[in-house]
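Lab meeting tomorrow. Look over both lines:
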Amino acid sequence: MPEEANKDAMRAPATPDKTNGSERPAVAMTTVNVPLVNEVQLAAATGGAELSCYRCIIPFGVVVLIAGVVVTAVAYSFNSHGSTISYLGLVLLSAGVVLLASSAVCWRVRLERKKERRRESQTALVAHQRTVFS
C-alpha cells in the first residue's frame, strides 16, 4: 500500500491532449474607442496653434543650426575629421537646415491655402451678388 502511494507521487500529472504547436491560446482583448476630433474642436483645444507649425519650427531650427555650426567649427579646428564630434556637428547642421527648409515649405503651403480661400470667398460673393441683382 505505501508502495502504491509512492508510485502515484512519482507519476507525472496527466496533460491534456497536445495539439498542433502553431495554435496559440486565445488572448483576451479589450477594445478602446477613440473619439474622432474635427478641425474646429482641435483649434479650440490648442488655441489655434495647430496651424502655426512653421512659427514653432523656426526658433528650433535656428538654435540647432547655430549649434551645428559651432560644433562643426570646433571639431574641424582640432583636425578631428571623422570623429564622433565632427559627425555630431554635421548631423546638427543638417538637422537645422532641414528644420528651416520645412518651415519655409509650411509657410508657403499656408500662404497658398490662404490665397485659395480668399479666391473662393470672392467667387461666392460675386455669385451671390449676381443672384441678388438679377
